[in-house]
From TrEMBL:
It comes from Paenibacillus auburnensis. Residues 20-165 form the Flavin reductase like domain. Pfam families: Flavin_Reduct (PF01613). The keyword Flavoprotein applies. The keyword Flavoprotein applies. Its cofactor is FMN. The lineage of its organism: Bacteria, Bacillati, Bacillota, Bacilli, Bacillales. Keywords: Flavoprotein, FMN. This is Flavin reductase like domain-containing protein.
Amino acid sequence: MIAIDPLTNTERDNYKLLVGTIIPRPIAFVTTVSEEGVLNGAPFSYFNIVSSNPPMISLSIQHSAGKPKDTARNILDTKEFVVHIVDRQNVEQVNMTAAPLAPDQSEISLAGLTPVDSSVIAVPGVREAKVRMECRLEQAVEFPGFELIIGKVVQFHIDEAIYDQGRIDPVQLAAVSRLAGNNYAAIGEIFTIERPV
């Protein structure tokens, strides 16, 4: 084993160790609306479940060039956002939204995604996702260099093709996950291990 002290590493070295070992990471495609009314969209792989009762998710949004990204700023301003699960069919379009655009430009338009109204919140989602979660900001913790966002899911939208009696079919969902660099992973072998009683 190689022992590495993160204090002796650069931020980039620690980043490479984290994203290379904590894999696969689910990808949240997040839509927000700016105070000026611009529909923003961006992918984040620092994303996970926080709680099921109430249903809550987390996003860690790193700063860009020393400033909060449009997504974090919009969430802090409006207290609303939509999280979409990235799948094999929409990953190319979602990847396009990672382009560094000015705040007054919409990544949704750039990627050719189709806005769709939400049911409970004002922020639209996109039609191309099989799963959309309308969220309200539950808590934001601001750290030097990033914001940790906790959102409460106030409405689920699930494609009928992946939904069966309250469960999601992982093969039909075809979610993709983030690895390191430019690499992604699709659902591969699925195996079952019974929990001990």
